[in-house]
Amino acid sequence: MDFVLRTIDVLKFSIDWKAKNNPGDKIWKGEYRERAFRRQMQKEIAFIEARYMGQMQRKKTLALKKKFVNKHEKIVAGRNHIRKIYYEARLHPLISNLH
Asked: pTM of the full predicted structure?
């Protein structure tokens, strides 16, 4: 049951994310990704900030962010795949009240 609920949550998030197409939404999406990076990589960022200064700190942080973005893109691709299956299988009437 837990898997089903998590899948529904992922699906809803993916549908909501795709629906955000207004100019201001692009800014919101960027800010969301930045918050996710800062939250999920908090310990690594703190380590870099404590150990390095100036240009080296920036370089290390950018390398960490690139690693995060790479991982995040794979997660997003998985969510998009679930959304595609959802619509292709015509399952959307089953949980359309979640939108």
From this structure: 0.71
